[in-house]
Every structure is written in C-alpha cells, then in structure tokens.
Amino acid sequence: MDRVITRLVALLACAVALAACQLDVTVDVVVESDGTGQIAVTVLADQDVLDQVPTLVDDLVLDDVIEAGWSIDGPRAPDDGSGGLFLQMTHPFRSQGEATNLLQSLGPPFTQMELGRGTNGDITTNQLSGRLVLSGFDDFADADLVASVGGQPFADEIAASGATPADSFNVTLQALLPGVIKSEQTNVEPDANGILTWELPDNGSAALILAQSTQQPGEGQRWARPLSILALIALVAWVSFMTIFIGYVTVARFRRARAYKHRHLGEQ
C-alpha cells in the first residue's frame, strides 16, 4: 500500500521544523468486539506554524490520501478556538489483515505494526504489536518521495537549522481493544476508559508496542454454542435414523422381491 500518510506527515514535520514549532500526531486504533474497527490519524499544529508558513494549508495535497480510502476532516482551525491547524484522516477496517495493512502504510515512526485476532474454543484473543522509532528526518524518505521532489524535502534547510524530530513533533499511539486486557502480555497500563497509550521516545530509541486482550462470548451470544450443539446432535440423530430407515426399506424390498420370485416359480 502506498505510504501517502507518511509523505503528508513528513512534509508537515519538515515545515514545522523549519518554523521552529511543534507538531502533534496521534494515531487511534479502535477494535470492535467483532474484529472490525477504525484507524484515525490526527495532526495538530499551533498558530505559530501558520504564522511562519502561511501557505501551509494551501500546500497540503490530499488527493492521494482520499484515493487510498481515507476520509478527511480539515485542514481547518481546531474546535477549541486556539488557532492553528487541525487535520484528521480516518479509515475503517473489516479484518485484522486490513488493519495491519493500514498500520504498516503509516510508515515511520510506526514500524513492524501488526494487529492479530484468533479464536480458540469460546475465547477470542486480540493482539497489537510493533515499534515506535525515529532516529531522524531521513527515516521519512522513501524512493517515491525522494523521486517526486528530487531529494529529501528541505534536507539542507533542516540540517542548517539543527532541528531534530524530538524538537519538532510528538507522536502518540492509542489503542482500544475489546475484552479484558491481559497485563502479562501488555507493556502499558490502560486508563480509566481502557485506552492504551504509547509515545515516541525523544532520544531516538524504540518504544515497543505490546498489547493483548481476550473476549468471552457475549451475554447475548451465550445461547449460540448450546444451540449449535443441539443442532449437531439433531443432525447426527437424523442421519442415523435415515441410515436405519433406508436399510430397512432396502431389506424389505429385497424380501418382497424374493417372495414374489418364489411364488412365480411355484405357479410354473
């Protein structure tokens, strides 16, 4: 999947770095009880960014993001009236495989991202894993991005400014998994709302993402397993009955045929 979100965030981060301001990027992953869900990428920049880069909003090209299936809210002023820039991109997913593809398409600092889901008996397990790591602005570069602009965007200007990712933006990953969080398989504590949060380290090191939850059958679904067992028993009983019945009919026909044959021979 084309990393259109990576390119957008990279260009925003570079512009913010040159303006000596800060960008906040939050990725929210919400998984519903049936395994579907949504990923949202929210970008916030303060008014100083727009004051120093007044063409920033007009320079944002979102056509590729929309074409990749993301819904867009913004760019616009934040709802709190503080000024600045608000941009949110959301994408639904129908399976853990689709969610994994979307997470991997985000690119740096989100690496080795994976959302897993499996069922063993009555228990469904959800698992989120990956890393948050960014050693420098060069991590944003990919072949298409470099080719499209002729090199790493603003590379010389950023080098001259001495800006670093830690100075320029904050990155947060938040996840809400269904069921009960397994603390022994999760490396952060959920808040009061059950939300798990990881933040990008500001020293170039990696933050490991590990989370797991388990789901019991819902109260409204507890009838399903007993009913399926009853249905299986009924099916086995029906098959057994039909086997006996067919055997009985076959034997009866065979006996009638023999009796008819004997009577016919006796009359001769």
What does the model show?
This protein folds into two domains: 4-218, no CATH class; 223-268. The longest helix is centred in the C-terminal third of the chain and has 44 residues, at 224-267. With 268 residues, it is α+β, with helices and mostly antiparallel strands. Helix content is 38%, strand content 29%. It has helices spanning 4-18, 47-52, 56-59, 63-67, 96-105, 143-149, 155-161, 165-168, 224-267; strands at residues 23-31, 37-45, 71-76, 85-93, 110-120, 123-132, 169-176, 180-181, 196-199, 207-215. Strands 3-4-2-1-7-9 form a six-stranded mixed beta sheet. A four-stranded antiparallel beta sheet has the order 5-6-10-8. β1 (23-31) and β2 form a beta hairpin. The radius of gyration is 31 Å and the shape is elongated. It is built from nine helices and ten strands. Mean pLDDT is 78; it is low at 145-151.
Strand order across the biggest sheet? 3-4-2-1-7-9
How many domains in all?
2
Report helical residue fraction: 25-40%
**Cα-atom Rg, whole angstroms?**
31 Å
Poorly predicted parts: 145-151
Shape: elongated
Quickly count the helices: 9
Query: What profile does the largest beta sheet have?
Result: 6 strands, mixed
Which structural class should the secondary elements be placed in? alpha+beta
Beta-strand percentage range: 25-35%
Sequence of secondary-structure elements: HEEHHHEEHEEHHHEEEEH
Kindly report how far apart the N and C termini lie: 86 Å
Query: How many strand segments?
Result: 10
**Overall mean pLDDT score?**
78
